[in-house]
Write a structure and sequence with these properties.
Elements (H helix, E strand, L loop, with lengths): L3 H11 L2 H6 L2 E6 L2 E7 L13 H17 L6 E12 L7 E10 L5 E11 L2 E16 L1
Antiparallel strand pairs: 1-2, 2-4, 3-6, 4-5, 5-6
Length: 139
Protein backbone atom coordinates (compact mmCIF):
# COMPACT_ATOMS: atom_id res chain seq x y z
CA UNK A 1 0.00 0.00 0.00
CA UNK A 2 1.39 3.41 -0.98
CA UNK A 3 1.64 6.19 1.58
CA UNK A 4 -0.55 9.09 0.31
CA UNK A 5 1.79 11.71 1.78
CA UNK A 6 4.82 10.18 0.03
CA UNK A 7 2.80 9.92 -3.20
CA UNK A 8 1.80 13.59 -3.02
CA UNK A 9 5.41 14.72 -2.66
CA UNK A 10 6.68 12.14 -5.19
CA UNK A 11 4.24 13.39 -7.87
CA UNK A 12 5.56 16.94 -7.54
CA UNK A 13 9.19 15.79 -7.24
CA UNK A 14 8.96 13.68 -10.41
CA UNK A 15 7.66 16.70 -12.36
CA UNK A 16 10.97 18.59 -11.89
CA UNK A 17 13.49 18.15 -14.74
CA UNK A 18 16.13 19.97 -12.65
CA UNK A 19 16.04 17.31 -9.93
CA UNK A 20 16.34 14.55 -12.54
CA UNK A 21 19.33 16.34 -14.12
CA UNK A 22 21.06 16.44 -10.72
CA UNK A 23 20.33 12.76 -10.06
CA UNK A 24 18.37 13.69 -6.92
CA UNK A 25 16.31 11.06 -5.10
CA UNK A 26 13.43 11.49 -2.68
CA UNK A 27 14.35 9.21 0.24
CA UNK A 28 12.15 10.17 3.20
CA UNK A 29 8.77 11.84 3.64
CA UNK A 30 7.06 12.40 6.99
CA UNK A 31 4.70 15.13 8.16
CA UNK A 32 6.88 18.25 8.28
CA UNK A 33 10.08 16.48 7.18
CA UNK A 34 11.55 15.52 3.80
CA UNK A 35 14.94 14.08 2.87
CA UNK A 36 16.52 14.35 -0.58
CA UNK A 37 19.83 12.84 -1.68
CA UNK A 38 21.92 13.77 -4.71
CA UNK A 39 25.26 12.39 -5.89
CA UNK A 40 28.12 14.83 -6.31
CA UNK A 41 28.46 14.22 -10.05
CA UNK A 42 31.29 15.63 -12.18
CA UNK A 43 28.69 17.90 -13.82
CA UNK A 44 27.65 19.38 -10.45
CA UNK A 45 31.14 20.29 -9.24
CA UNK A 46 32.66 23.74 -9.20
CA UNK A 47 36.12 24.74 -10.44
CA UNK A 48 38.06 23.41 -7.40
CA UNK A 49 36.28 20.04 -7.63
CA UNK A 50 33.90 20.46 -4.69
CA UNK A 51 30.16 19.99 -5.01
CA UNK A 52 28.79 23.31 -6.28
CA UNK A 53 26.92 25.50 -3.80
CA UNK A 54 24.07 25.48 -6.32
CA UNK A 55 23.63 21.75 -5.70
CA UNK A 56 23.45 22.29 -1.93
CA UNK A 57 21.03 25.18 -2.42
CA UNK A 58 18.80 23.31 -4.87
CA UNK A 59 18.31 20.18 -2.81
CA UNK A 60 18.09 22.16 0.45
CA UNK A 61 15.44 24.52 -0.93
CA UNK A 62 13.55 21.58 -2.43
CA UNK A 63 13.62 19.50 0.76
CA UNK A 64 12.42 22.49 2.81
CA UNK A 65 9.66 23.26 0.32
CA UNK A 66 8.44 19.69 0.29
CA UNK A 67 8.48 19.62 4.10
CA UNK A 68 6.02 22.53 3.90
CA UNK A 69 4.00 20.70 1.23
CA UNK A 70 3.44 17.77 3.60
CA UNK A 71 1.25 20.07 5.73
CA UNK A 72 -0.26 22.24 2.96
CA UNK A 73 -3.95 21.97 2.06
CA UNK A 74 -4.90 19.56 -0.71
CA UNK A 75 -4.94 21.25 -4.12
CA UNK A 76 -1.94 23.44 -3.25
CA UNK A 77 1.74 23.42 -4.18
CA UNK A 78 4.52 25.37 -2.46
CA UNK A 79 6.60 28.29 -3.74
CA UNK A 80 9.68 29.74 -2.10
CA UNK A 81 9.16 33.34 -0.99
CA UNK A 82 12.70 33.76 0.32
CA UNK A 83 15.49 31.49 1.47
CA UNK A 84 19.05 32.01 2.65
CA UNK A 85 21.95 29.63 2.84
CA UNK A 86 24.99 29.51 5.10
CA UNK A 87 27.76 27.42 3.56
CA UNK A 88 29.88 25.90 6.32
CA UNK A 89 32.44 23.75 4.50
CA UNK A 90 33.19 22.63 0.93
CA UNK A 91 30.98 19.78 -0.25
CA UNK A 92 33.27 16.78 -0.61
CA UNK A 93 32.05 13.22 -0.71
CA UNK A 94 29.89 10.75 -2.57
CA UNK A 95 26.55 12.49 -2.13
CA UNK A 96 24.74 15.35 -0.44
CA UNK A 97 21.79 14.71 1.86
CA UNK A 98 19.31 17.53 2.51
CA UNK A 99 16.82 17.24 5.34
CA UNK A 100 14.05 19.84 5.17
CA UNK A 101 11.88 20.63 8.19
CA UNK A 102 8.72 22.63 8.59
CA UNK A 103 9.25 24.89 11.60
CA UNK A 104 6.00 26.86 11.55
CA UNK A 105 3.12 26.01 9.23
CA UNK A 106 0.83 28.84 8.16
CA UNK A 107 -2.13 29.48 5.90
CA UNK A 108 -0.23 32.18 3.99
CA UNK A 109 3.43 31.72 4.92
CA UNK A 110 5.37 28.84 6.46
CA UNK A 111 8.85 28.93 8.00
CA UNK A 112 11.25 26.14 7.01
CA UNK A 113 14.84 25.02 7.47
CA UNK A 114 17.09 22.52 5.76
CA UNK A 115 20.40 20.98 6.71
CA UNK A 116 22.72 19.66 4.01
CA UNK A 117 25.45 17.15 4.80
CA UNK A 118 28.05 15.48 2.59
CA UNK A 119 28.29 11.70 2.92
CA UNK A 120 31.33 9.54 2.22
CA UNK A 121 30.79 5.91 3.18
CA UNK A 122 29.32 5.95 6.70
CA UNK A 123 30.65 9.42 7.53
CA UNK A 124 28.73 12.68 7.17
CA UNK A 125 29.92 16.26 7.45
CA UNK A 126 27.71 19.38 7.68
CA UNK A 127 27.91 21.47 4.51
CA UNK A 128 25.12 24.05 4.70
CA UNK A 129 22.07 25.22 6.56
CA UNK A 130 19.14 27.04 4.97
CA UNK A 131 16.23 29.00 6.43
CA UNK A 132 13.32 30.37 4.49
CA UNK A 133 9.71 31.21 3.99
CA UNK A 134 7.34 29.20 1.80
CA UNK A 135 3.90 30.05 0.45
CA UNK A 136 1.10 27.61 -0.45
CA UNK A 137 -0.46 28.36 -3.83
CA UNK A 138 -3.54 26.73 -5.36
CA UNK A 139 -2.93 24.62 -8.46
Amino acid sequence: MTDPLFSRVRTSFDASPMLATLGARLTRVEPGLVEIRAPILPSSRQQQGYGHAGLSFTIGDTAAGYAALTMAPEGHEILTVEIKINLMTPAMGDELIATGKLIRPGRRLSIVTAEVVARTGDTTKPVAILQGTMMPVPV
